Amino acid sequence: MMNEDQMIIKELEKAQDEIEGGNLKVVTGNNEVVSHLIFAGSDIMLYLNFFQDPLLQVPLKALKYGTVPIELNPQTGHVGTHEQEATTTAKIFNSLFGRMSLGQALDLMKKDGRLWELKIMEAMEKDLCCDVHVSAYTSIKNL
């Protein structure tokens, strides 16, 4: 029996075959080098669940490359647990893209490309590396 995440991945893999031009690529493994290449060449990254990455490292890395992480399986409608909500990273995600669905992201890209570009540039300009390290330390300290 497949769990919900596995069913979503299976549906995305089917959609990958149906989309013309190879504009959708489903990557389920963990390869650091490939992930950097994907982020550098993507507009949107579909992310199963932000709670699986409590420090938001993958979405943060995607934003630095100008790729917007969109959560496919949102649990709460916003990014971050209660502890994360106070971090700069979570605040930026929530203010720029945290509540955005895939449909909303695609609509914004098509209808107001300039606003989309401004949001991406704003996210890319943020230096969140220290915030992530402070969050990691706090998480470990609170164990």
TrEMBL record:
It catalyses: [(1->4)-alpha-D-glucosyl](n) + ADP-alpha-D-glucose = [(1->4)-alpha-D-glucosyl](n+1) + ADP + H(+). One of its GO terms (molecular function) is alpha-1,4-glucan glucosyltransferase (ADP-glucose donor) activity. It comes from the Eukaryota. Its EC number is 2.4.1.21. Gene3D superfamilies: Glycogen Phosphorylase B. This is starch synthase. The lineage of its organism: Eukaryota, Viridiplantae, Streptophyta, Embryophyta, Tracheophyta.
